[in-house]
Amino acid sequence: MTSEIKELPEAIACKGISVRTTNNAEISHETAKLGRLWQKFYQNHAGNLPEGEDIYGIYHNYESDDLVGAFDVVAGWKVDSEQEQSDNDSNTKNGTLVSVDIPAGKYLVFSEEGRMPNTVMNAWEKAWTYFNDRSCEHVRTYHVDFEHYIGGNLEYGQVDLYIGIE
Predict the structure, then answer these.
(1) In sequence order, which ranges of 87-142 are alpha helices (DSSP H)?
(2) Phi/psi at 103 (5° precision)
(3) Nearby residues of 73 by Cβ (< 8 Å), 6 or more positions away
(4) What is the mean pLDDT of residues 92-109?
(5) I need a labelling partner for 124 at 20 to 30 A (CA). Which of 12, 142, 146, 165 fits?
(6) Statement: residue 10 has pLDDT above 70
(7) CB-based contacts of 40-47 (< 8 A; 24+ apart in sequence)
(8) Dist CA 71 CA 66 (whole Å)
């Protein structure tokens, strides 16, 4: 596992489908929503994207921190401002698409490679371990965090987990 600080020079506009959940809800198969979100994304949207298109999992609208409180997760893709205009308030047969911006700023990036979803879970585990260590030198903002699936492969590949820091 590697982690490094990256400065995102400009915001990334994304579009996708969204759920609101908590880390506590994600522990139990009965209440977990993220697996179903990604399944719905894969079935209804991934096939419409250009081959190799990067995919993003965006975590935002945090109520508090990672231990308590709800947050929104968007499974989506990058759009340019022209697409944004033409797709505004777009409804599809598969539900409403939402727009979210990944803000420019400083992020601590945890990179993992392997079979999904284990790879992304490993990246989150390493991030939580890092930030819960008392000697941790960075402070999470709990504004926006995101997963960047390079090349759009949701089965096997590389994921970079960007955690917003002060």
Answers:
(1) 118-132
(2) -75, 150
(3) 18, 19, 20, 21, 33, 34, 37, 57, 58, 59
(4) 85
(5) 12
(6) yes
(7) 40/75, 40/94, 40/95, 41/16, 41/17, 41/75, 41/76, 42/154, 44/17, 44/92, 44/94, 44/95, 45/16, 45/17, 45/75, 45/76, 45/77, 45/94, 46/152, 46/154
(8) 9
What is the DSSP code (8-state) at residue 62?
Answer: -
Quick one: average pLDDT of 76-101?
Answer: 67
Q: Contact 147/48 with Cβ under 8 angstroms?
A: no
Q: Is the peptide bond before 9 cis (omega within 30 degrees of 0)?
A: no
What is the rounded distance in angstroms from the CA atom of residue 46 to the CA atom of residue 135? 40
Q: Is the pLDDT at 83 greater than 90, yes or no?
A: no
- Residues 121, 7: Cα–Cα separation, whole Å: 23
Q: Using CA atoms, how far apart are residues 17 and 92, in angstroms rounded to an integer?
A: 10
Q: Is the pLDDT of residue 90 over 50?
A: no
Give the residue ranges of DSSP H helices in 21-135.
Answer: 23-27, 34-44, 81-86, 118-132
Taking the C-alpha atoms of residue 16 and residue 97, their distance in angstroms, rounded to an integer, is: 5
Beta bridge partners of 96: 91
- Entry pTM: 0.89
